[in-house]
Amino acid sequence: MQTERLLLKIALSTIYSLSLKEKINLAKTLDNLHDLALHSSIETIEAKIGRPLLAKSWNPEENARLAKAAFSRMDKLGISCVFFDEKEFPSMLREINDPPYALFFRGDLKILEGNCVSVVGTRKITGGAKIAAHDFSYDAASDGTTVVSGLALGVDGEAHRGALDAFFDGKTSVAKTAAVLAGGVDNIYPVRHKKIAAQILKNGGCILSESAPGIPSEKWRFVQRNRICAGLSRATLVIQAPPGSGSLITADFALGYNRELLFHEACFSDEANAISKMVRANLAGKEGSAARKKIEANCERYVSDGAEIVKSYKDFCEKISSVPGMKNSDATRELF
Q1: How deeply is 3 buried, as exposed, middle or buried, from its count of CB atoms within 10 A (0-12, 13-18, 19+)?
Q2: What is the spatial distance between Cα 31 and Cα 6, in angstroms, rounded to a whole number?
Q3: What distance in Å separates the CA atoms of residue 20 and residue 26, rounded to the nearest whole number?
Q4: Is the dihedral of CA 298, 304, 305, 310 positive or negative?
Q5: Tens of pLDDT along 156-199?
Q6: Does pTM surpass 0.85?
Q7: For 256-281, how does the pLDDT look when each residue is reduced to its tens digit (9 = 90+)?
Q8: How far is CA 26 from CA 10, 18, 31, 43, 142, in A?
Protein backbone atom coordinates (compact mmCIF):
# COMPACT_ATOMS: atom_id res chain seq x y z
CA MET A 1 0.00 0.00 0.00
CA GLN A 2 1.38 3.42 -0.91
CA THR A 3 2.52 5.51 2.04
CA GLU A 4 0.01 8.33 1.48
CA ARG A 5 -2.91 5.92 1.26
CA LEU A 6 -1.73 4.09 4.36
CA LEU A 7 -1.40 7.34 6.30
CA LEU A 8 -4.95 8.31 5.30
CA LYS A 9 -6.38 4.97 6.47
CA ILE A 10 -4.44 5.09 9.75
CA ALA A 11 -5.80 8.59 10.36
CA LEU A 12 -9.35 7.40 9.66
CA SER A 13 -8.87 4.59 12.20
CA THR A 14 -8.29 7.21 14.91
CA ILE A 15 -11.58 9.07 14.26
CA TYR A 16 -13.95 7.31 16.67
CA SER A 17 -17.00 9.41 15.75
CA LEU A 18 -17.10 7.76 12.31
CA SER A 19 -18.69 4.38 11.70
CA LEU A 20 -16.94 1.50 9.97
CA LYS A 21 -18.91 2.08 6.78
CA GLU A 22 -18.14 5.79 6.82
CA LYS A 23 -14.42 5.15 7.21
CA ILE A 24 -14.42 2.71 4.32
CA ASN A 25 -16.31 5.15 2.09
CA LEU A 26 -14.08 8.09 3.01
CA ALA A 27 -10.99 6.01 2.26
CA LYS A 28 -12.41 5.55 -1.24
CA THR A 29 -13.35 9.20 -1.83
CA LEU A 30 -10.32 10.93 -0.28
CA ASP A 31 -7.00 10.63 -2.04
CA ASN A 32 -4.53 11.18 0.78
CA LEU A 33 -3.85 12.51 4.26
CA HIS A 34 -3.52 16.04 2.87
CA ASP A 35 -7.14 15.87 1.70
CA LEU A 36 -8.30 14.85 5.15
CA ALA A 37 -6.31 17.43 7.09
CA LEU A 38 -6.57 20.51 4.92
CA HIS A 39 -9.25 20.30 2.26
CA SER A 40 -12.01 18.40 4.08
CA SER A 41 -13.90 20.74 6.36
CA ILE A 42 -16.45 19.29 8.73
CA GLU A 43 -19.15 20.45 6.31
CA THR A 44 -17.50 18.56 3.46
CA ILE A 45 -17.23 15.38 5.52
CA GLU A 46 -20.85 15.72 6.69
CA ALA A 47 -21.91 15.96 3.06
CA LYS A 48 -19.93 12.84 2.20
CA ILE A 49 -21.31 10.72 5.06
CA GLY A 50 -24.83 12.17 5.01
CA ARG A 51 -25.15 13.11 8.68
CA PRO A 52 -24.01 15.84 11.11
CA LEU A 53 -20.91 15.47 13.28
CA LEU A 54 -20.15 17.04 16.63
CA ALA A 55 -17.67 19.83 16.00
CA LYS A 56 -15.51 18.76 18.97
CA SER A 57 -15.16 15.27 17.49
CA TRP A 58 -13.67 16.57 14.25
CA ASN A 59 -9.98 17.41 14.43
CA PRO A 60 -8.34 16.22 11.18
CA GLU A 61 -5.06 17.98 11.94
CA GLU A 62 -4.71 15.97 15.16
CA ASN A 63 -5.70 12.76 13.40
CA ALA A 64 -3.05 13.45 10.75
CA ARG A 65 -0.47 13.99 13.50
CA LEU A 66 -1.45 10.71 15.18
CA ALA A 67 -1.23 8.88 11.85
CA LYS A 68 2.26 10.18 11.10
CA ALA A 69 3.46 9.33 14.61
CA ALA A 70 1.92 5.85 14.35
CA PHE A 71 3.52 5.25 10.95
CA SER A 72 6.92 6.19 12.36
CA ARG A 73 6.48 3.75 15.26
CA MET A 74 5.32 1.02 12.89
CA ASP A 75 8.40 1.43 10.72
CA LYS A 76 10.72 1.44 13.73
CA LEU A 77 9.20 -1.53 15.57
CA GLY A 78 8.04 -3.73 12.70
CA ILE A 79 4.33 -3.22 13.36
CA SER A 80 1.92 -4.15 10.58
CA CYS A 81 -1.72 -3.26 10.00
CA VAL A 82 -4.68 -4.74 8.19
CA PHE A 83 -7.99 -3.06 7.36
CA PHE A 84 -11.51 -4.44 7.38
CA ASP A 85 -11.81 -4.39 3.60
CA GLU A 86 -8.62 -6.42 3.09
CA LYS A 87 -8.62 -10.20 2.73
CA GLU A 88 -6.09 -10.69 5.53
CA PHE A 89 -8.53 -9.29 8.11
CA PRO A 90 -9.52 -12.12 10.52
CA SER A 91 -12.65 -13.79 9.16
CA MET A 92 -14.32 -14.38 12.54
CA LEU A 93 -13.93 -10.73 13.49
CA ARG A 94 -15.39 -9.66 10.17
CA GLU A 95 -18.66 -11.40 11.12
CA ILE A 96 -19.51 -9.33 14.21
CA ASN A 97 -21.86 -6.35 14.04
CA ASP A 98 -19.30 -3.78 15.23
CA PRO A 99 -15.89 -4.85 13.86
CA PRO A 100 -12.89 -2.52 14.03
CA TYR A 101 -11.81 -0.66 10.91
CA ALA A 102 -8.17 -1.52 11.46
CA LEU A 103 -5.98 -3.96 13.36
CA PHE A 104 -2.39 -3.12 14.20
CA PHE A 105 -0.29 -6.14 15.04
CA ARG A 106 3.08 -7.67 15.72
CA GLY A 107 3.74 -11.34 15.06
CA ASP A 108 1.74 -13.78 12.96
CA LEU A 109 -1.89 -12.75 12.43
CA LYS A 110 -2.53 -16.02 10.58
CA ILE A 111 -2.81 -17.95 13.86
CA LEU A 112 -6.25 -16.32 14.19
CA GLU A 113 -7.53 -18.04 11.06
CA GLY A 114 -7.54 -21.45 12.71
CA ASN A 115 -9.55 -22.63 15.70
CA CYS A 116 -9.64 -20.01 18.46
CA VAL A 117 -11.01 -19.90 21.99
CA SER A 118 -11.14 -16.75 24.12
CA VAL A 119 -10.11 -17.33 27.74
CA VAL A 120 -11.03 -14.47 30.08
CA GLY A 121 -11.48 -13.68 33.74
CA THR A 122 -10.69 -11.46 36.68
CA ARG A 123 -7.30 -9.97 37.52
CA LYS A 124 -7.44 -11.09 41.17
CA ILE A 125 -7.72 -14.85 40.83
CA THR A 126 -7.77 -17.74 43.26
CA GLY A 127 -5.15 -20.47 43.27
CA GLY A 128 -7.61 -22.85 41.65
CA ALA A 129 -8.50 -20.40 38.88
CA LYS A 130 -4.81 -19.81 38.20
CA ILE A 131 -4.29 -23.53 37.60
CA ALA A 132 -7.50 -23.79 35.60
CA ALA A 133 -6.56 -20.94 33.23
CA HIS A 134 -3.08 -22.34 32.67
CA ASP A 135 -4.07 -25.99 32.21
CA PHE A 136 -7.05 -25.28 29.96
CA SER A 137 -4.92 -23.08 27.70
CA TYR A 138 -2.06 -25.58 27.71
CA ASP A 139 -4.38 -28.32 26.51
CA ALA A 140 -6.10 -26.05 23.98
CA ALA A 141 -2.78 -24.94 22.44
CA SER A 142 -1.55 -28.55 22.44
CA ASP A 143 -4.63 -29.43 20.42
CA GLY A 144 -3.82 -26.73 17.85
CA THR A 145 -6.34 -24.18 19.13
CA THR A 146 -5.24 -20.55 19.44
CA VAL A 147 -5.84 -19.08 22.90
CA VAL A 148 -7.06 -15.47 22.72
CA SER A 149 -6.87 -13.25 25.79
CA GLY A 150 -6.11 -9.68 26.86
CA LEU A 151 -2.62 -9.89 28.45
CA ALA A 152 -4.02 -8.48 31.72
CA LEU A 153 -2.98 -9.65 35.15
CA GLY A 154 -4.72 -12.72 36.54
CA VAL A 155 -6.59 -15.04 34.21
CA ASP A 156 -5.29 -13.46 30.99
CA GLY A 157 -1.65 -13.85 31.95
CA GLU A 158 -2.12 -17.45 33.03
CA ALA A 159 -3.93 -18.25 29.78
CA HIS A 160 -1.04 -16.91 27.72
CA ARG A 161 1.47 -18.74 29.94
CA GLY A 162 -0.39 -22.01 29.47
CA ALA A 163 -0.29 -21.70 25.69
CA LEU A 164 3.38 -20.71 25.80
CA ASP A 165 4.24 -23.69 28.01
CA ALA A 166 2.62 -25.98 25.45
CA PHE A 167 5.01 -24.51 22.88
CA PHE A 168 8.05 -24.83 25.16
CA ASP A 169 7.11 -28.45 25.86
CA GLY A 170 7.03 -29.19 22.13
CA LYS A 171 3.26 -29.74 21.97
CA THR A 172 2.85 -27.20 19.17
CA SER A 173 5.20 -25.72 16.56
CA VAL A 174 4.36 -22.09 17.37
CA ALA A 175 3.03 -20.21 20.38
CA LYS A 176 -0.70 -20.61 19.79
CA THR A 177 -1.82 -17.51 21.60
CA ALA A 178 -2.90 -13.98 20.67
CA ALA A 179 -2.95 -11.03 23.06
CA VAL A 180 -5.44 -8.25 22.38
CA LEU A 181 -4.41 -4.87 23.81
CA ALA A 182 -6.48 -1.80 24.64
CA GLY A 183 -3.77 0.66 23.59
CA GLY A 184 -1.16 0.57 20.86
CA VAL A 185 0.95 -2.57 20.46
CA ASP A 186 4.09 -0.49 20.87
CA ASN A 187 3.32 -0.04 24.57
CA ILE A 188 2.78 -3.29 26.49
CA TYR A 189 0.33 -2.95 29.36
CA PRO A 190 0.66 -4.02 32.11
CA VAL A 191 4.42 -3.46 32.14
CA ARG A 192 5.07 -6.60 34.18
CA HIS A 193 3.80 -8.67 31.25
CA LYS A 194 6.44 -7.41 28.83
CA LYS A 195 8.28 -10.73 29.18
CA ILE A 196 5.15 -12.69 28.24
CA ALA A 197 4.60 -10.38 25.28
CA ALA A 198 8.19 -10.89 24.13
CA GLN A 199 7.81 -14.67 24.39
CA ILE A 200 4.59 -14.55 22.39
CA LEU A 201 6.28 -12.62 19.58
CA LYS A 202 9.54 -14.55 19.64
CA ASN A 203 7.77 -17.89 19.29
CA GLY A 204 5.19 -17.27 16.58
CA GLY A 205 2.22 -15.80 18.41
CA CYS A 206 0.53 -12.44 17.87
CA ILE A 207 -0.16 -9.19 19.70
CA LEU A 208 -2.85 -6.93 18.23
CA SER A 209 -5.01 -3.90 18.83
CA GLU A 210 -7.44 -1.67 16.95
CA SER A 211 -5.63 1.31 18.51
CA ALA A 212 -2.83 2.78 16.43
CA PRO A 213 0.70 2.79 17.86
CA GLY A 214 1.12 5.65 20.29
CA ILE A 215 -2.49 5.46 21.55
CA PRO A 216 -2.59 5.00 25.35
CA SER A 217 -4.54 2.30 27.22
CA GLU A 218 -7.41 4.50 28.40
CA LYS A 219 -10.18 2.95 30.50
CA TRP A 220 -12.88 3.01 27.81
CA ARG A 221 -10.60 1.22 25.37
CA PHE A 222 -10.62 -1.92 27.53
CA VAL A 223 -14.33 -2.40 26.81
CA GLN A 224 -13.56 -2.03 23.10
CA ARG A 225 -10.74 -4.54 23.54
CA ASN A 226 -13.16 -6.99 25.15
CA ARG A 227 -15.41 -7.01 22.09
CA ILE A 228 -12.44 -7.98 19.91
CA CYS A 229 -11.50 -10.80 22.30
CA ALA A 230 -15.05 -12.15 22.00
CA GLY A 231 -15.26 -11.55 18.26
CA LEU A 232 -12.13 -13.48 17.34
CA SER A 233 -13.45 -16.82 18.64
CA ARG A 234 -16.49 -19.03 18.23
CA ALA A 235 -16.43 -19.68 21.97
CA THR A 236 -15.50 -17.71 25.09
CA LEU A 237 -14.61 -19.39 28.39
CA VAL A 238 -14.82 -17.45 31.66
CA ILE A 239 -12.39 -18.88 34.24
CA GLN A 240 -13.37 -16.73 37.24
CA ALA A 241 -15.41 -13.53 37.46
CA PRO A 242 -16.85 -11.94 40.61
CA PRO A 243 -19.95 -9.72 40.20
CA GLY A 244 -19.30 -6.74 37.98
CA SER A 245 -16.05 -8.16 36.55
CA GLY A 246 -15.01 -6.70 33.22
CA SER A 247 -14.72 -10.23 31.85
CA LEU A 248 -18.51 -10.47 32.04
CA ILE A 249 -18.61 -7.62 29.52
CA THR A 250 -16.71 -9.96 27.21
CA ALA A 251 -19.30 -12.63 28.02
CA ASP A 252 -22.08 -10.27 26.95
CA PHE A 253 -20.27 -9.49 23.71
CA ALA A 254 -19.93 -13.21 22.98
CA LEU A 255 -23.65 -13.74 23.46
CA GLY A 256 -24.43 -10.67 21.37
CA TYR A 257 -22.35 -12.09 18.54
CA ASN A 258 -24.18 -15.43 18.76
CA ARG A 259 -21.01 -17.17 19.95
CA GLU A 260 -20.79 -19.89 22.58
CA LEU A 261 -20.26 -18.87 26.20
CA LEU A 262 -19.06 -21.28 28.87
CA PHE A 263 -17.87 -21.04 32.48
CA HIS A 264 -15.13 -23.02 34.18
CA GLU A 265 -16.03 -24.73 37.44
CA ALA A 266 -13.33 -22.60 39.09
CA CYS A 267 -15.89 -19.76 38.95
CA PHE A 268 -17.91 -21.57 41.62
CA SER A 269 -15.27 -22.89 44.01
CA ASP A 270 -15.56 -22.09 47.72
CA GLU A 271 -12.69 -19.64 47.42
CA ALA A 272 -14.25 -17.90 44.39
CA ASN A 273 -17.66 -17.80 46.09
CA ALA A 274 -16.12 -16.14 49.15
CA ILE A 275 -14.60 -13.44 46.95
CA SER A 276 -17.90 -12.93 45.14
CA LYS A 277 -19.69 -12.59 48.48
CA MET A 278 -17.30 -9.85 49.59
CA VAL A 279 -17.69 -8.02 46.28
CA ARG A 280 -21.49 -8.17 46.57
CA ALA A 281 -21.34 -6.81 50.13
CA ASN A 282 -19.13 -3.95 49.00
CA LEU A 283 -21.40 -3.11 46.08
CA ALA A 284 -24.50 -3.34 48.25
CA GLY A 285 -23.15 -0.47 50.34
CA LYS A 286 -23.06 1.81 47.33
CA GLU A 287 -25.95 3.76 45.86
CA GLY A 288 -26.96 4.05 42.24
CA SER A 289 -27.86 1.92 39.27
CA ALA A 290 -24.23 1.20 38.38
CA ALA A 291 -23.67 -0.73 41.62
CA ARG A 292 -26.97 -2.56 41.20
CA LYS A 293 -26.08 -3.61 37.66
CA LYS A 294 -22.73 -4.94 38.84
CA ILE A 295 -24.42 -7.04 41.52
CA GLU A 296 -26.80 -8.43 38.92
CA ALA A 297 -23.92 -9.25 36.55
CA ASN A 298 -22.70 -12.56 37.94
CA CYS A 299 -21.72 -16.00 36.67
CA GLU A 300 -24.74 -17.69 38.22
CA ARG A 301 -27.07 -15.60 36.11
CA TYR A 302 -25.48 -16.77 32.86
CA VAL A 303 -25.59 -20.40 33.97
CA SER A 304 -29.25 -20.10 34.93
CA ASP A 305 -29.84 -18.75 31.44
CA GLY A 306 -28.28 -21.87 29.92
CA ALA A 307 -24.49 -21.37 29.81
CA GLU A 308 -22.54 -24.60 30.32
CA ILE A 309 -20.04 -25.27 33.12
CA VAL A 310 -16.84 -27.13 32.18
CA LYS A 311 -13.93 -28.55 34.15
CA SER A 312 -11.29 -29.01 31.44
CA TYR A 313 -10.50 -28.48 27.77
CA LYS A 314 -11.71 -31.99 26.99
CA ASP A 315 -14.98 -31.27 28.76
CA PHE A 316 -15.20 -27.96 26.88
CA CYS A 317 -14.89 -29.72 23.52
CA GLU A 318 -17.57 -32.23 24.48
CA LYS A 319 -19.95 -29.51 25.63
CA ILE A 320 -19.43 -27.48 22.47
CA SER A 321 -20.15 -30.48 20.28
CA SER A 322 -23.39 -31.17 22.14
CA VAL A 323 -24.84 -27.66 21.98
CA PRO A 324 -28.42 -27.90 20.64
CA GLY A 325 -28.49 -27.41 16.90
CA MET A 326 -24.72 -27.79 16.55
CA LYS A 327 -24.13 -31.47 17.22
CA ASN A 328 -22.51 -33.13 14.19
CA SER A 329 -22.64 -29.85 12.27
CA ASP A 330 -19.82 -28.99 9.88
CA ALA A 331 -19.07 -25.82 11.85
CA THR A 332 -18.58 -27.79 15.05
CA ARG A 333 -16.40 -30.43 13.44
CA GLU A 334 -14.22 -27.74 11.88
CA LEU A 335 -13.88 -25.87 15.17
CA PHE A 336 -12.99 -28.74 17.45
Answers
A1: exposed
A2: 11
A3: 10
A4: positive
A5: 999 999 999 999 999 999 999 999 999 999 999 999 999 999 99
A6: yes
A7: 999 999 999 999 999 999 988 888 88
A8: 12, 10, 9, 14, 43
